[in-house]
Design goal:
With 203 residues, this protein is α+β, with helices and mostly antiparallel strands. It is rod-shaped, with a radius of gyration of 32 Å. The N and C termini lie far apart (113 Å). Strands 1-3-4-5-6 form a 5-stranded antiparallel sheet, with helices on one face. Strands 2-7-8-9 form a 4-stranded antiparallel sheet, with helices on one face.
C-alpha cells in the first residue's frame, strides 16, 4: 500500500512546474518580448524616415520634371550668371556656356493671360533655425515668384548651361541643368544630385 502512495506522489511531482521554473520561463519570455518590441520600433522608425526621404526626393524630381517640360515648350532662352533673369524683354536671348544661376524663357502661349516670361532661380533665405537655406523658385510676370520645392530641401547648386539660344546659332537651343543639394529628414541631411537636358521643341 505504501508503494502505491509513493508512485502517486512521483506522478504528481512530475506533472507540474516548480515556482522557480515558472519564474525563469516568465523572465525569458519578457526579455524576448522586450527585445522584439525594440526591434519593431526601430523598423517602424526607419520606415517613417525612408518614407519622408522618398517624399522629399519625389518633390525634387517633380520640380525638375516640371521645369524641364516648361522649358522644352518655351522660346527665347535667356541665361544669366547672376542676378534676376526676368529683366530682359520678351525677344532677348542669351547663352551661358559656362553655366548660369538664373534662366528664363517665353512660355508657350495658352491664352491671353499667359505670362510674358517665366524664369527659375535659387533664392537665399534662412531655415527655422536661422541657418542659410536656398530654395528653388519659379517666377513669372503675372504671379511673381513661388517656391517649387519643400522647406526640407536646400538647393546648394543650380546651374543652367545654355547653348543655341541666339537667332544666328546653327544648333537647336538646349539647356543642361544641374541641381545639387541636401534633403533634411528628421534632422539628418541627405545629399542629392540630379541633372537633365531640355531641348527646345517649339522652334
Amino acid at each position: 500500500m505504501k508503494r502505491i502512495k509513493d508512485k502517486k506522489n512521483i506522478r504528481n511531482f512530475k506533472s507540474g512546474f516548480t515556482l522557480i521554473e515558472l519564474m525563469v520561463a516568465t523572465t525569458i519570455f519578457v526579455v524576448v518580448m522586450v527585445a522584439s518590441m525594440g526591434s519593431l520600433f526601430t523598423l517602424l522608425d526607419a520606415s517613417k524616415g525612408s518614407k519622408a526621404l522618398r517624399s522629399a526626393m519625389d518633390n525634387v524630381n517633380f520640380a525638375m520634371d516640371s521645369m524641364t517640360r516648361s522649358i522644352r515648350m518655351g522660346t527665347n532662352y535667356y541665361c544669366v550668371e547672376g542676378g534676376d533673369p526676368m529683366f530682359p524683354s520678351t525677344d532677348q536671348n542669351q547663352n551661358c556656356p559656362d553655366g548660369g544661376q538664373g534662366f528664363s524663357f517665353v512660355p508657350q502661349k495658352e491664352d491671353g493671360a499667359s505670362p510674358s516670361r517665366v524664369g527659375y532661380m535659387t533664392v537665399l533665405g534662412t531655415d527655422a533655425k536661422g541657418a542659410p537655406h536656398n530654395t528653388l523658385k519659379r517666377c513669372d510676370s503675372l504671379s511673381g515668384c513661388v517656391s517649387i520645392v519643400s522647406s526640407d530641401v536646400n538647393i546648394e547648386k543650380l546651374k543652367f548651361f545654355t547653348s543655341g539660344a541666339k537667332p544666328d546659332d546653327l544648333t537647336q537651343a538646349k539647356v543642361y541643368i544641374i541641381m545639387k543639394g541636401t534633403v533634411m529628414v528628421k534632422g539628418v541631411p541627405t545629399s542629392f544630385a540630379i541633372q537633365t537636358l531640355a531641348s527646345q521643341r517649339n522652334f
